[in-house]
Amino acid sequence: MVVDGAKSVTAAFALSTPTSYTLTLTKNGTGSGTVTSTPGGIACGTSCSANFSSGTNVTLAASAGTGSTFAGWTGACTGRRLHREHDHGPDRCRNVHG
Q1: Does residue 83 register a pLDDT over 80?
Q2: 33: which strand partners?
Q3: Could you tell me the residue ranges of all domains in the chain?
């Protein structure tokens, strides 16, 4: 466009439908415990999968049941820079940025 006088331009934007992915969690071992997610959606023993929009940062928190200990994460939590809060609450699996 050549600006050779007063002109008006309109830029139109549309909402895109975010891509959603299913995060599925499997509990194993002989002990008991719960796993929850932030944002909410996963509350294992009850629901072990939930859909999250692409790009959502999800934190998983594991809490061992009475007489059990949390043994660790495998799968998508393996090999990532994880933040584990052994002494200050549940064990958490999340990406650490920075």
Answers
A1: no
A2: 64
A3: 20-93
